[in-house]
Please model this.
Amino acid sequence: MNYLSDKINKELDKIAKIKKQVIDDRIEILSPEEKKEALEIQKKCHDFLKNRDFEGLKKYAAHIKKVKG
Amino acid sequence: MSLKFLYTHQYQENYPPEEWKGLEFEGTVNETSFQSAITTNTLTFVGPVASLIMDDWIPNYGVHNGLPLRVVETSGNNTEIVFDGMLIIRDKEIYSKLGPIILKIPIVDLTDNLNSLDRVSVFTHSLLKSQGYITNSMYHHLPVVFFLKKGFQDRVFDLKQLVFKVLSTFFQIIQDIFSAIADILGASVAVGIVEFATLIANVFIQINQLSDLVVEALQRIIPIQYYHNVVSIKDVVEAAFAKIGKVVKWGIIEDEVADHYVLSTGIGTEFAQFPNNSTQGELNKFSHGYIIDEYMQEVEKLFNTRFSDRDSEVWIKTKKDPDWQNYSGFETEDLVVEQTKQYQNGYFRDKTEDIYATEIFRYEFDEADAWTLTDKSGDIHEVHRDLITELDPKMNLLKGVKDTRVEWAMAVRYEPITIITEIVEEILNTFGLNLSNFQGLITQWSQQIPSQYQQDISSTTNLLQGNIFVALKAGGLLVEDDTFGRAKIVYAKKVKDDQGNDTKVLSIPANFKDYLGAEYKYNEYYTYDSPAVEYNFQGQRTQIKDWVIPFTLTNYQQVKDNPYFLLGQIEAKLEYIKRTPEGRTATVDIEKKEVFDNNITETVI
Model:
């Protein structure tokens, strides 16, 4: 069981690193307009999560994927 | 000084019996009061009294009506009935039928030697309640928490399964995240952001579901709380003495006695879900309630008390109470123990029988309640006495064990955080996780406890919700279930309302063992009797026996209600008196507070 909990803790660390690599680091190298747009999308997503508006997030994600995908 | 002999139910004065000059009156001190009696069993009557019996009493009333006899002693303005009984006419022996008639007749003392304690001893709690001496206003509501100690391992097993489920789910969530991140890598940054946010949303939803599961599981280990009415020891004892018209004076223990309550055996006892007067609140030892005699014996042990009848008052005060130093006015000189070739007047001895090598104060445990078996801290205190200088262990004369056993089980306080933490901690330790999240959850619940829950819980819905939160509140009496077999002794304080006034609801304070624990009881009340150097040998006493001293009727009246007096400047107590009114002397046994051995020390075990 200790193995399981250690594993979870390590995996959570990995997720945080990967998230930085695949999102945060990529935002930094965008053009100023694209960066501004990406940060707005990220803020909106944070707001949905903060308000626990999962349905709203789902609709917004579908919209972004349709427009930017 | 004179003795008057009064006969028949009209108590007419007549001639004394032949033995009147040598009559001796005996007084035995029972803790603080005298039980007096005449030393002879048979008296001889001649002349007018014999004629009265043979010619008047027997022809009119037969031999099966006892003939009243009262002896009154007078000295100056003092008058005292020193014998109140009867002649047993049916057992008379006639030694001469003619001039004079001589009769020898047994006598019996009918003096009511019962003191107030004897009288109240036969009462029961139920009797006092039914006759209105114990009233509903004396009831206080004691929270009683039922929580099975025996189910502990089962609960641990259930929760281990739960934690395994939680961790497995977490693990699955993480795997899902990794697999989703692989997709994000090929998408645009904007799509990656919303995909990642959606992943986090899914994690939130799953964690919420897990959280609900955890909450439900924790609810299973939260015990159920009920209430039972209890009456303080102070109120019960005062009610018993009120029935015989006496007021109880407690002295320095009064406040403490008021915070001691006894909860009867659980068998056949009603418990209520709300604090109210619906339960009887009786000391229900299989319905009649505890006999006050049993009750008073435990009170004496709890506070190491002396009892004394004082006119309209009774004193139930601990032995060290300064009120006991209100000595009677009796005085005698401390120098007349002497021996000549012809004459020995009294002798000294040490009361070594009151010195024990080991002294224990303990509460009984309840075999039917595992909590009293396992929560053992504070219910026993033991001291051992040794010689400061011991020459040879084989010749150490210290011996004996004084074992003071309170027949009630000491309360176990319900402390929810401890109990829940104990279980959760064991589980989390197994998994190597941090306890803080679970403690946070518990703390959050605790904050939701309404301060006026007794008013708030007014509907079934509120009850169902409220029981969880109320039960989280510490301070109830913890028992396994409603079948515990031994009464519980509880130290509790009244819960205050928002205005700071006392309510009828009780709570056992976290430091209750500071007042109920065996160590406290010994240190506070029993060290007065300790013969050891640590307590200045204050429990040591010597005795003067068979000591003949001048003793008048006034002396008798001084000591009959209060046998404590100063012998020189030292506290002393009359233990036995045999006096001859005609001789104005008495043979007495006296106990004296005096150190006779400064070679004893005691150690707490």
Remarks:
- Confidence is low (pLDDT under 50) at residues 430-471 of chain B.
- The radius of gyration of chain B is 36 Å.
- Residues 294 and 563 of chain B are 26 Å apart (CA to CA).
